[in-house]
Amino acid sequence: MRALTVEEARQRATDLAVRSYRLEFDLTGPGDTFVTTSRILFAAGTGTSWVDVKPERLLAVELNGTALDVGLLAEGRFPLTELQADLDQGAMRFYWITPDRCHDTHDCSVAQGDAWLQQTVPSILSSKAFTSGGVLFLTYDEDDGSAGNRVVMVVITNDGVHRTSAVDYNHYSLLATIEDLMGVGRLANAQDATPMTDLLGP
């Protein structure tokens, strides 16, 4: 089994927040071996990581209910690359990515949140999901503490043009913009919201 280096341990501590482990053992079978099922509840702060596992035989792996190829196990590590694979394929029209409570800076420092963004955003911008006409909306759910209740919003499009807006938008504006781009009806308060078309370009 491949040893975990100090640098890898630090990186994975940044990438993954493990919530719980659950182990189930089936000791009813014959012979000297038995079947065990491990369930790991975790939040991922990046599209690529791995779990350490060294079974006698790996029977099945599921990630969020989706079966994965057990043949991916190598040197005691099973790769977790589904988010990056989805982005690279560009198979979905809409991706919602939320960091865990550490990397959204609720429970950890702003520096750790920045490190997550520096790792995650370039992967998104180089993916097929973005380069084939995608738009990245990057926002925050905390204001700046001012009377104006300002919240950071960055919109990145493929044309590379720098735009700013003097319009007062809110989170319903974001919802309205996404719904309009997808060609679906607007929900609830988004029905009357102003879409952020001046940040999307022509």
List the helices and strands and how they pair.
Layout: H1 6-15, E1 16-26, E2 35-44, E3 49-52, E4 61-63, E5 66-68, E6 77-80, H2 82-89, H3 110-125, H4 128-131, E7 136-139, E8 153-156, H5 171-182
Antiparallel strand pairs: 1-2, 3-6, 4-5, 7-8
Question: Please, could you describe this protein's structure?
Answer:
This protein is of the alpha+beta class and 202 residues long. The protein folds into two domains: 6-88, no CATH class; 91-199, no CATH class. The chain is 25% helix and 21% strand. It contains five helices and eight strands, in the order H-E-E-E-E-E-E-H-H-H-E-E-H. The protein has helices at residues 6-15, 82-89, 110-125, 128-131, 171-182, and strands at 16-26, 35-44, 49-52, 61-63, 66-68, 77-80, 136-139, 153-156. The protein has a two-stranded antiparallel sheet. The protein has a two-stranded antiparallel ribbon with strand order 3-6. The longest helix is centred in the middle third of the chain and has 16 residues, at 110-125. It is elongated and about 70 Å long. The chain starts with 5 loop residues before the first helix and ends in a 20-residue tail after the last helix. The model has no long low-confidence stretch (mean pLDDT 80).
What keywords describe this structure?
202 residues, 21% strand, 5 helices, two-stranded antiparallel ribbon, elongated
Based on CA atoms alone, the radius of gyration comes out at: 21 Å
Percent helix, as a range, is 10-25%
- Summed up, the helix count is 5
Rounded to the nearest angstrom, the distance between the terminal CA atoms is 54 Å
* Secondary structure: number of strands: 8
Strand content: 15-25%
**Contiguous runs where pLDDT drops below 50 for at least 5 residues:** none
Question: How confident overall, as mean pLDDT?
Answer: 80
Largest sheet: 2 strands, antiparallel
- Order of strands in the sheet with most strands: 1-2
Any idea how many domains?
2
User: Helix-strand pattern, N to C?
Assistant: HEEEEEEHHHEEH
Shape: elongated
Structural class computed from helices and strand pairing: alpha+beta
